[in-house]
Structures are given as C-alpha cells and as structure tokens.
Amino acid sequence: MEPKKNPKSDVSRNSSIYFAVGLALMLAVTYLSINYKTYDKSDIAIDSLNLDDDLEEEVPITEQIITPPPPPPPPPKAPEIIEVVEDEEEVEETVIESTETEMDTEIVEVEEIEEVEVEEDIEVPFSVIENVPIFPGCEKKKGNEAKKKCMSEKVAKFVNKKFNVDLASELGLPPGKKRIFVAFKIDKNGNIVGVAARGPHPGLEKEAKRVISLLPKMKPGKQRGKSVVVPYSLPIVFQVQD
C-alpha cells in the first residue's frame, strides 16, 4: 500500500532548525522586554514660549544735571604807581666792607702744638730679648744666658713648691703623668699678667693660674734700652699615684 503523504512535505525533517530559530526569537523578545524603559509623563516639563507677547521695558527717568558755567576770571590788578624821583634827591648807597686784612694788622701767633708719643706695648720673646727679666735672687748672675737659666730654675722651683699635687686625686683623675701648659707675660713694670693654662681638667688649670699669679714682681726685660713685655711659658708635670 503506498503512503498518501508526500515525503517532501514532512515537517519533522527541519524541526531542529525551527526550534533553534524560535528559541532565538524568544530570547530576543525577552531581552527587549527586560531592557524596555518607560517614563512618567508628569516628570516631563514642556515649556512654551509665546513670542507674540511684547516685551515692554520701563526706562527710568533720570534727572539731567545742568553744570553751572565756571566763574569769570578775576579782574587784572591795577599797576603800581611809579613815583618819579628828582635828580637832586640823594639816595643812600650800601657800602660793602672788604674782608681782606691790611698790611699793618697784627697776626696772632699760634702756640706750638706738643706731640704726645703713645708708647706701644712691644712684646719680645724670652729667647731673643737683649736684657732678660730678672727674678729676685738672680741679680748677681753675670751675662744674659746665666740670668735666663737662673730665672727658669727659680720659676720651676716656685711652682713645684706652691702647686697642690694632691688635687688630681681629689678630682678623681686616673693615675699617671699629668701635664699642664702655662703661659703668662711679664709687663713693662715687672708684673705677671695674662695668665693662661691648658690641662686635662679645669680644676688643674685653675690651680696652675693661682700658682703663677703668686710669682713675685721681677725687674722688667729691656730691648734697646726700653722696657718691653716678655711672654713666658712652661709645662707643669707631676705624677698621680694609685
């Protein structure tokens, strides 16, 4: 028995294609419906401008200020009355005296101005001075070198006698040899001035200054017959025991 349907009109052949097309259409419709936006008409403001209305602008009326004309210039002054002086009338003349001196005028003599010489404090090193300062007790020494040696020995002996060597232990300094450098000047009158010290502790420096200030007054040193300032320096060395 032959089939009555035409095999070409069989719909089931392309069912998968139809299904895919229909699914794509449904997805497109669903996407559009989800993203569709609506707006409330009340939120839309429609402004209308009537151009037929006449714009009438009221111009304020201002008062016009009338500037008064400038005042007229003052009248010219009347010319001064010129008096006519007769030739016979005497006119006093001003006499200008000369400031130049005459030959007979005595000139006051100026007293002589005395020039006062200001003596400068000249310093001469102890090693090159012509006449060394003389320490008390060194007057009988002959020659400059002998007096230098005598002074150095006397100063060192004086310092060793007066200096408090126990001060280092009292200050808590560690044992060992201590050295203090002292410098001073013997001025033109033989006095001790400008004492300075440098040591391992301020207490030792103060003690060194005190001892040097106790040095006796000396006979000042001289250079070319004039008293001069002589700088002098010496080290103070002592041992701190345990």
Gyration radius from CA atoms, angstroms: 64 Å
Strands of the widest sheet, in order across it, are 2-1-5
SS class: alpha+beta
Mean pLDDT score: 77
Q: In terms of quaternary structure, what is this?
A: single chain
The ordered H/E elements are HHHEEHEEE
Give the overall silhouette: flat
Span between termini: 145 Å
Fraction in helix: 10-25%
Q: Uncertain spans, ≥5 residues at pLDDT below 50? A: none
- Helix tally equals 4
- Strand elements, count: 5
Strand content: 5-15%
Largest sheet: 3 strands, antiparallel
Can you walk me through this structure?
By secondary structure, this protein is an alpha+beta fold. It is built from four helices and five strands; from the N terminus they run αααββαβββ. The model has no long low-confidence stretch (mean pLDDT 77).
